[in-house]
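Lecture notes, continued. The same structure-token format from the folding unit now serves as the input rather than the output. Read the line below as a description of shape only.
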């Protein structure tokens, strides 16, 4: 059985019977989610269950999410999932209300160095919140073609007194959940603008796509690669200490400082990568235990014989 099928089965097992029935009613989608829209409370329940299954089966990489941001990351995951679960049945065809579509939408979010940066995910939800869509061909915003299936209303037709358009959080559940997500995202951004909050939020959703190489942006792949390298260096250093490798006091202090710096995800990837080689040089190669070394010598003698 594919891993995605296994995750979906775990998700179905985690939700109530009434919600399972709503999923089954959507016969037009593969691994379906409820369609038509099932309401705010049901969406919240679905989001909590899906995030719970993903976090259990696709745990965060060691060192990727700092301790002080774990609660914010978890809350943001649930809110962004709820926003997506509301958006799909309200504005997209029933075939798109499937578990893989959640990962597709989440993958569109991307960290920016400035508060005004807008990723494809942000622009998608802003279509509902502003009634306007950015056209790359025209280089300008044009009226969105979104139509809400529950009542046939268009966010571009909702005109406010100040001349703006779109549905507010009081008028649309997708906007409401998305605005709540933005509050968490902005709270973290104001504290640490360089911290890649969006990558930490989206990481477990990778398991919902078969072609995972399309899930991340290039800088996100670099961040994950660096995190894995640092974790490997930490493991190697601890193994060497356990095997009584002789580090002098100055080297130990330098290694501890470098590992702390390399593991600080609030620092830019480029800045941390510049110190990676120095940490590798100080830690050195993994030291083998006397017992494993003896095994290698014996194996060599056997091969020679």
């Amino acid at each position: 059985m594919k891993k995605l099928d296994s995750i979906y089965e775990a998700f179905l097992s985690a939700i109530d019977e009434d919600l399972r029935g709503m999923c089954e009613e959507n016969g037009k989608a593969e691994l379906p989610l409820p369609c038509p829209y099932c309401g705010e409370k049901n969406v919240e329940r679905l989001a909590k269950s899906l995030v719970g299954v993903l976090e259990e089966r696709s745990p965060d990489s060691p060192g990727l999410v700092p301790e002080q941001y774990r609660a914010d990351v978890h809350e943001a995951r649930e809110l962004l999932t709820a926003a997506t679960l509301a958006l799909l049945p309200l504005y997209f065809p029933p075939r798109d209300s499937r578990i893989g579509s959640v990962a597709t939408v989440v993958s569109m979010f991307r960290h920016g160095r400035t508060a005004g940066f807008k990723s494809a995910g942000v622009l998608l939800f802003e279509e509902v919140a502003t009634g306007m869509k950015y056209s790359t061909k025209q280089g300008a915003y044009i009226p969105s073609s979104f139509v809400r299936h529950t009542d046939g209303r268009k966010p571009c037709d909702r005109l406010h007194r100040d001349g703006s358009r779109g549905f507010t959080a009081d008028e649309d559940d997708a906007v409401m959940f998305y605005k709540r997500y933005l509050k968490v995202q902005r709270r973290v951004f104001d504290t640490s603008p360089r911290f890649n909050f969006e990558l930490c939020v989206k990481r477990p959703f990778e398991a919902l796509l078969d072609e995972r190489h399309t899930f991340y942006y290039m800088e996100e792949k670099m961040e994950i690669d660096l995190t894995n390298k640092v974790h490997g260096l930490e493991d190697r250093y601890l193994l060497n200490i356990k095997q009584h490798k002789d580090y002098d006091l100055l080297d130990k202090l330098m290694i501890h400082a470098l590992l702390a710096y390399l593991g600080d995800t609030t620092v830019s990837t480029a800045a941390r990568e510049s110190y990676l080689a120095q940490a590798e040089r100080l830690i050195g190669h993994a030291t083998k235990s006397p017992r494993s070394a003896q095994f290698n010598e014996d194996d060599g003698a056997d091969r020679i014989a």
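Point for the exam: The beta strands are 132-135, 140-143.
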